[in-house]
Amino acid sequence: MAMRDIRVLPDPVLRTPCEPITQVDDRVRQLVADLVETVDDEGRAGLAANQIGVSLRAFSWNIDDEIGYVLNPRIVDLSEDEYQDGDEGCLSVPGLWFSTRRAWYAKVEGVDLDGNTVVVEGEELMARCLQHEVDHLDGYLYLDRLEKSVRKKAMRALREQL
């Protein structure tokens, strides 16, 4: 296992959709170990594989003292009539937090290293994390979800950082 460096904007790996994992081999097992170790740090809620430079569909989470991972996740359910607005940040966009609208509830399905079905669901922070990490795997950042006026402000702040 290894604590991996986090890729930050404008690294193109963050904007590239990740490939599905078709075979669990030593490389994928090492990826999961690295994701779990890297997310297990103060202030980290989730980590997608492309945030450590690997373009495969996998992420880990660290919510309420529970650490886990899922391979080939896909969102299968979102609350359609309940939303949350709250500040959201990202390890790949350090130091910037903006109000981001997300579904109150989210459910993700994928598999584990043994090919068993994994279902991860939750409300509030867990729902936000699931949506945030699947977005990463699809090549999106939370900045892409911001309302137009907030996004303009966020992009200005981002340019000032670079």
Radius of gyration: 15 Å
Number of DSSP helices?
A: 3
The fraction of residues in strands falls at 25-35%
CATH topology: Peptide Deformylase
Total beta strands: 7
Ends apart, CA distance between termini: 31 Å
Count of structural domains = 1
CATH top-level class: Alpha Beta
**Shape annotation:** globular
Report the mean per-residue pLDDT as an integer: 96
- Give the low-confidence spans: none
- Briefly note the structural class of the backbone: alpha+beta
Supply the CATH architecture.
Alpha-Beta Complex
Strand order of the largest sheet: 1-2-3-6-7
Main pleated sheet: 5 strands, antiparallel
Structure in a nutshell:
It catalyses: N-terminal N-formyl-L-methionyl-[peptide] + H2O = N-terminal L-methionyl-[peptide] + formate. With about 160 residues, this protein is of the alpha+beta class.
Write the layout of secondary structure elements.
Elements: H1 26-39, E1 46-48, E2 58-63, E3 66-78, E4 83-90, E5 93-103, E6 105-111, E7 117-123, H2 124-137, H3 148-161
Antiparallel strand pairs: 1-2, 2-3, 3-6, 4-5, 6-7
Structure commentary:
It contains 3 helices and 7 strands; from the N terminus they run αβββββββαα. It is α+β, with helices and mostly antiparallel strands and 162 residues long. The protein has helices spanning 26-39, 124-137, 148-161, and strands at residues 46-48, 58-63, 66-78, 83-90, 93-103, 105-111, 117-123. The longest helix is centred in the first third of the chain and has 14 residues, at 26-39. The chain has a single domain, classed as Peptide deformylase (Peptide Deformylase), CATH 3.90.45.10. The chain is 26% helix and 34% strand. The strands form 2 sheets. It has a 5-stranded antiparallel sheet with strand order 1-2-3-6-7. The chain has a two-stranded antiparallel sheet with strand order 4-5. Strand 6 (105-111) and strand 7 (117-123) form a beta hairpin.
